[in-house]
Amino acid sequence: MAELARARPKPTPETQHFWDGTKAGELRLQRCDGCAHIYFPPRPFCPHCGGRAVSIFSASGRASLYSYVINHRPAAPGFAAPYAIAVVELEEGPRMMSNIIDCPQTPEALQLDMKLEVAFERLDDAITLPVFRPAKG
Amino acid sequence: MRKPQVAVVGAAETTRLGIIPDMSQIQLHADAALNALADAGLKLSDIDGIATAVETPQQIAHYLGITPRWVDGTSVGGCSFMLHVRHAAAAIAAGLCSTVLITHAESGKSMIGKLPRSIPADSLQGQFEAPFGVVGPPSMFPIPVLRFMKTFGITHEQLAMVAVVQREWAAKNPRAMMKEPISVDDVLNSRMIAYPFRLLQCCLVTDGGGALILTSAERAKNFPHKPVYVLGAGESVETPMVSQMESFNSSRAFRVAGPAAFAEAGISHSDVDHLMIYDAFAHLPLYGLGDLGFMPYEDTGPFIAAGHTRPGGKLPLNTNGGGLSYMHSGMYGMYALQESVRQMRGIAPAQVPNARISVCHGVGGMFAASGTVIFGNQD
Ligand SMILES: [Zn+2]
Q1: A79 interface with B at CB cutoff 8 Å
Q2: pLDDT tens, A80-123?
Q3: pLDDT score, position B117
């Protein structure tokens, strides 16, 4: 039996800019031109005020660890258990699910609120995932 | 308290619960429905409204031979049935139909005739959650709990006590899957599933179903069992993506559904004799106690650890043993409702003496949705 491939995102017209960004080494967010609300996941209008005038910008990549689990069950294809599934809080406000790299996958090493920075993990020619590592310095 | 307009007059689970390898999912629906009809002394032709989740109403109506004039296919996860009760109560009160059948069943363990659940790769979950190693609810539903623990000073031992106390209730329920007593050490030494949760803090996976029949309070007195009145209900949804909840310290959907039910029923927390909080995982009763306003969040863990929710405690909680010990076919809300109805009828295996008001609170998805129903047995 062929090994199952890691779950691979399939961009839509509304999210393509995000995936183009990660491929180019940028974490792209959107900001409402009307009310300045910054949001994620991508959509071509502001979920705070409903305005359709929104701009894409490159986030700082700085984040902190909001919460996580360490999965010990049979791993998802492309993963080796135990591994953390984390939610990080970006400096700009939005949160996103991700993985924490360059860090032991243990409760001792994974401290809530620890500072993180974005890194990019290439899956294939089309898709690069945003992941996070402990911030340096 | 307002005068109730609608009541549950029929309630039943499938003949068997647990591992049922000789029945498909749709037959489990039918088994529960026929049991509920027998319980109410009704025939299929008496039913003029139908509600179900996951399976479509047309599937269930056709299989059972029902011609409904009111239909609800709300499918928001395991609390869908709480929403069905709320919608059915409104429909009956408005005269849209007279007698509603709500069915749930799931071949959760045996997987016979069960619709596949998959996440499309171009959905938002498929793009922004699935690629990070999620493998089913145990890898997602507990993600908020470490934040909740840090914010409110909740301990691993307190979260273990949720499972211990519910096992005490399950021991009193002959139909509960797991009845052997367990200790905090047993919980904390059980197999790690998704840190911080271990096996005994995660719900069972079983087969089964349940059904409810509702009609007007006026008609309800002419049925074989004591009517169980719907005093109030609430509902909401937040997000299908656990990562996108407003906060991990609370569920917004809980905070909308719970208070709406209390306001409609016109009761206060001190009026509550019996409480069900859908416990797919051990943190849910803590969120429920906080979000429904029973106590400050930081008191929820100590309250359970002190034994206030155990048999004989001042706030009996999850008295069938819950999703952790009674059964969990995938959409447990129906079983929580069944236990509330049994408690209000006064026939529960672990009956709370003189219980007059029961609050039944459900979750759907990973904090994606919520429904709360408040039942009473006085008209
Ligand atoms: Zn805006």
Answers
A1: yes
A2: 999 999 999 999 999 999 999 999 999 999 999 999 999 999 99
A3: 76
At A137, the pLDDT band (50, 70, 90 cuts) reads: low
**Residue A118: which of A104, A98, A103, A92 has the closest Cα?**
A98
Smallest CA–CA distance, residue A136 to chain B, in Å, is 23
Q: Does B197 reach chain A within 8 Å, measured CB to CB?
A: yes
- The answer to whether position A26 is within a domain reads yes
Q: Locate B87 and state its tokens.
A: 């919608």
At residue B49, φ and ψ (nearest 5 deg) are -145, 140
Distance separating alpha carbons of residues B306 and A86, to the nearest angstrom: 32
pLDDT value of residue B2:
72
The pLDDT, as a whole number, for residue B202 is 95
**pLDDT at A1 exceeding the cut of 50:** no
Q: Are B14 and B210 in contact (CB under 8 A)?
A: yes
DSSP single-letter state for residue A77: T
Which pLDDT score, from 0 to 100, does residue A3 have? 61
Cβ neighbours for B83, distance < 8 A, ≥ 6 positions apart: B74, B76, B235, B369, B371
Q: Which of A67, A45, A70 is nearest to A56 (CA)?
A: A45
Greatest extent of chain B over all pairs of C-alpha atoms, in Å: 56
**Is A44 contained in some domain?**
yes
Q: Which residues of A touch B143 (CB under 8 A)?
A: 67-69, 85, 87
Three-state DSSP state, B158: helix
Q: Which residues does chain B have with pLDDT short of 70?
A: none
Cβ separation B132–A6 shorter than 8 A: no
- For A47, counting Cβ atoms within 10 Å of its Cβ (0-12 exposed, 13-18 middle, 19+ buried), the class is middle
Structural domain range at position A77: 16-134
Burial of A136 (0-12, 13-18, 19+ CB in 10 A): exposed
Domain count, chain A: 1
Summarize pLDDT for B54-78 with one digit per residue, the tens.
999 999 999 999 999 999 999 999 9
Chain B residues with CB under 8 Å of A41 CB are 124, 127-128, 241, 244
Q: Which CATH superfamily is domain B6-113+203-376 in?
A: Thiolase/Chalcone synthase (3.40.47.10)
Give which of B291, B214, B215 is closest to B260, Cα–Cα: B291
